[in-house]
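Recap from last week: sequence in, structure out.
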Amino acid sequence: MAAELFFIYDSHCPWSYATTPLVNAVNQSLPEVSLNLWHCAYFSDADGENTITKQQIVQVKELSSVSFSPDYMAKLSLGKDSTLCANLMTWAVGKTPELALQLLNALQAAHFSAGNALSEQAELEGIIEEFKLSVPAKVFNKTKLTTDAAAQVHEISALQEIIGTQAIPALLLAIDDNLILLNHNFYLQEPDAIIDAIKLELNNHG
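Predicted structure tokens:
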């Protein structure tokens, strides 16, 4: 039996930030479940909605265990741009998959805890040095997604059509040919609870 967890997210999305602890819990407790981190680049579309409201943050804080720094809150009205993070994460998943989840956690900590916009190369260099990554120059083109990142966004769109929702974040459990959309909202305040839910699905399809 092959089992995979797909995490469709955006590095600059507060709800994705709140859902990452669930992914961390699954990765730690169920290593047999392969992890697929798919950055959807929601905040890289110049024509899209790239701002976040205080009300959204209030809702995330009420329903999850994550926190947001005063530095982040002070910049809340500024537009968000996740292009560089989408490029970096897509590259990391392909080249250093064993570090990808740690890298995502570091990016989210820099953005939501330290208030770092992560929209310029200089803002990413400290994290890249910390993980000792040799990142190609194309990743730092902040005006467009890399070919790999754009291709992943296309794959995400196709998958969203299958599951019937474009909402992010999304946690999808694939067991052989079965695709199960997990309701992450049930587990935001208790990340370990998702482990039991996935074990139940594995038993049902085993």
